[in-house]
Amino acid sequence: MVDQATREPGGGYADKKCPLLENPHSDCYCLKLNSLSVPQAIHFCLKDFRQCPIYRRFVELTSF
Predict the structure, then answer these.
(1) Residue 15 in contact with residue 1, Cβ under 8 Å?
(2) Fewer Cβ atoms within 10 A, N terminus or C terminus of the chain?
(3) Are 28 and 45 in contact (CB under 8 A)?
(4) Is residue 18 within 8 Å of 45, Cβ to Cβ?
């Protein structure tokens, strides 16, 4: 997913938009936005989805 990666100031790469945003899981931060979940939604849904516990659980459940 090279097109979804951006160069970070430290030299690494960070993923952008979470692929689940197009069809979110029922637990996704973006579906249950409130003052407590906005920081997680910004961080995980728009910046670093590979570290998101919801995304990681989804990947584990759908991997064969």
Answers:
(1) yes
(2) C
(3) yes
(4) yes
Which two structure tokens, joined as six digits, stand for 38? 């906005």
* pLDDT tens, residue by residue, 11-59: 554 557 999 999 998 999 999 899 999 999 999 999 999 999 999 999 9
Predicted local confidence at residue 62, as pLDDT: 87
Structure-token pair, residue 33: 């936005």
Q: Which residue has the tokens 């995980």?
A: 44
H or E, element range at 5: strand 5-7
- The number of residues making up the chain comes to 64
What are 55's two structure tokens?
Answer: 């995304």
Between 5 and 3, whose confidence is greater?
Answer: 5
Partners of 7 in the beta sheet?
13
